Amino acid sequence: MLKLRLKRYGRKGQPSYRIVVAHSTSRRDGRPLEELGYYNPLITDPAQQTQLNVPGLVKWLKQGAQPTPTVRDILKRAQVFDQVHG
């Protein structure tokens, strides 16, 4: 099964994440199939907090990739699911 999930980067105490597509059995920081954006929870401005490759996300969601709960919330805020169903 394919998952859309977060891959952690950054120093201790300063996390930064990349949104990736990976097999559900692979390691959290292992090699992903594709990187589709990033998320930085330390930035307070929501417009700069994420950067997404929306066409790539839509493609993987239509192929059946399942987002983790955190990634699902990020995608809802960016209104990506409207493009999948619309």
Tally of alpha and pi helices: 4
- Mean of the pLDDT scores? 92
The termini sit apart by 24 Å
Assembly state (oligomeric): single chain
**Class of secondary structure makeup:** alpha+beta
**Roughly what fraction of the amino acids lie in strands?**
25-35%
Q: Report the count of strand segments.
A: 5
Task: Going across the biggest sheet, name each strand in turn.
Answer: 4-3-2-1-5
Order of helices and strands: EEEHEHEHH
Unreliable segments (pLDDT under 50, ≥5 consecutive)? none
Task: Give the CATH class.
Answer: Alpha Beta
Q: What is this entry, summarized?
A:
The protein has about 90 residues and is of the alpha+beta class. The chain is built from four helices and five strands; from the N terminus they run E-E-E-H-E-H-E-H-H.
Helix and strand layout, with pairings?
Elements: E1 2-9, E2 16-23, E3 34-39, H1 46-49, E4 50-52, H2 54-62, E5 66-67, H3 69-77, H4 80-85
Parallel strand pairs: 1-5
Antiparallel strand pairs: 1-2, 2-3, 3-4
Descriptive notes:
By secondary structure, the chain is of the alpha+beta class. The protein has one domain: S16 Ribosomal Protein, Chain: A (2-Layer Sandwich). It contains four helices and five strands. The chain has helices spanning 46-49, 54-62, 69-77, 80-85, and strands spanning 2-9, 16-23, 34-39, 50-52, 66-67. A five-stranded mixed beta sheet has the order 4-3-2-1-5. Strand 1 (2-9) and strand 2 (16-23) form a beta hairpin. The longest helix has 9 residues, at 54-62. The mean pLDDT is 92.
